[in-house]
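Reviewers of the previous submission asked for a worked example of the structure-prediction workflow described in the proposal, so we include one complete record here. The input consisted solely of the amino acid sequence. No template or homolog information was supplied to the procedure at any stage.
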Amino acid sequence: MHHHGYVWTGPKERFDQEALRRPPHPEPPTAGSRPELIQRYREVTSEFPVVDLPPLETAYWLIKPRTLVWGTWDEPKEAAAWLGARLAAYAPRFASEAQRDPAYLAVLVNATAERLGSGADVSLGCYLERPSYLSLAVVTCSPNRSMPELACPVT
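From that input alone, the workflow returned the following structure tokens.
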């Protein structure tokens, strides 16, 4: 088991494009469906696997291009330390002053290490200066507990 780290920052408006953050429905629309529904399904089918937006379900980061992986770690504490370093780097830009508190960030890092150690994924998000958003994720891989059928993106 190992862990992959992911970072996304961008306009909150783009983050809110949920259709591109969820996988396409397993069954395509029928041939008689409205043309715009068929077209939207095609767009989501082609874009979801490659778009850099954070998926709604954290494990789906594993199907994204390997170029989106910021790092890979064998130990949960190493992955949590990476996440902590990212939080510290972005902390001055956090919209919420309470989220900048080093004690609060340390609690998040410790909780991340524990969660990763149990085989779970971690996904955090916070508002930066308006209207930006930061999404951080560490995904457990080989296998992923919630979606073991997903292959490792870096093999």
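The beta strands are 2-11, 71-73, 122-127, 132-141. We consider this example representative of the routine output the project will generate in years two and three.
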